[in-house]
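Lecture notes, continued. The same structure-token format from the folding unit now serves as the input rather than the output. Read the line below as a description of shape only.
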């Protein structure tokens, strides 16, 4: 008679293990977190200067602690993916960032803030509906990377009827 191996996921962190917390490895939850960060970057950027730079650095460090599960959270639950060896390493593959794996989430959020500001600066004279799709693409890139999902780049282009700065005058 063949014996079957009994396995249990009882002690493995995951969705539903902490019902009062949101699963940070869910694309929807990660995307919501990243969108909030990007919206705050756009809101705070015009003030600029040291307060803005300090805010970005602080929030990026907070995200690093949160996504790596270093800092306990009353809101979010994390799992085995949330480690420098897994998530940190993957972020260096998925995003154009360098550095140590243990700081990869921080570096990803710093990179996102820089890229969002670049887009805003480039298109400052244009209405947001002409360039916000570029910010959405950056948000998706970071959100998907944070959960280890491949990015579907087919939906980050402007809709056919969305004017771009090149076609706005046409």
């Amino acid at each position: 008679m063949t014996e079957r191996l009994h396995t249990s996921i009882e002690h493995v962190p995951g969705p539903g293990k902490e019902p009062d917390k949101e699963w940070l490895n869910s694309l929807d939850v990660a995307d919501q977190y990243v969108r909030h960060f990007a919206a705050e970057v756009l809101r705070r950027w015009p003030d600029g200067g040291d307060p803005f730079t300090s805010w970005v650095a602080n929030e990026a460090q907070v995200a690093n602690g949160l996504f790596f599960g270093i800092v306990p959270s009353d809101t979010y639950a994390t799992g085995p993916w949330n480690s420098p060896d897994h998530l940190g390493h993957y972020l260096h593959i998925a995003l154009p960032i360098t550095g140590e794996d243990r700081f990869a989430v921080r570096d990803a959020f710093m990179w996102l803030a820089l890229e969002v500001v670049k887009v805003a600066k480039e298109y400052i004279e244009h209405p947001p509906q002409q360039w916000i799709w570029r910010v959405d693409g950056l948000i998706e890139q970071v959100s998907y990377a944070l959960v280890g999902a491949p990015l579907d780049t087919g939906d980050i282009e402007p809709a056919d009827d969305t004017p771009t700065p090149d076609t706005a005058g046409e």
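Point for the exam: Strands lie at 22-23, 76-77.
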